[in-house]
Amino acid sequence: MSQQCIKRTTLFKIPKEEDIPKALEAYKELERTAIKDGKSYILSCDAGKIINTSEPRSQGYTVCGQTTFSTIEDVHYYDNECAAHAKLKSIVTPIRTDAAVMLFESDRPPPPSY
């Protein structure tokens, strides 16, 4: 059995199409710059434009981001202390109208970094 990890999925409602690339680039920067105790602590980080926005089940969300962590303590650090995450929030908060965050445990390893 694989070791469990924590996956944090965030959905954003970013109504202006021209603002979506700003959010996606912020996730790329997060992946490059998120540091805890002098080293990278996010196991994987990905974000993309939601492609089924014309369907009611998308509920108006336009961007999905997912970060994977080894421990719930790393999630708490990310939420409360991580400078890279604070920068992402400073970029995305002004351009979004809503967000939803879900955490779940997974025994599937994160995908390899490219």
Automatic annotation (TrEMBL):
It comes from the Eukaryota. Residues 6-104 form the Stress-response A/B barrel domain. Coiled coil: none annotated. This is Stress-response A/B barrel domain-containing protein. It comes from Lithohypha guttulata.
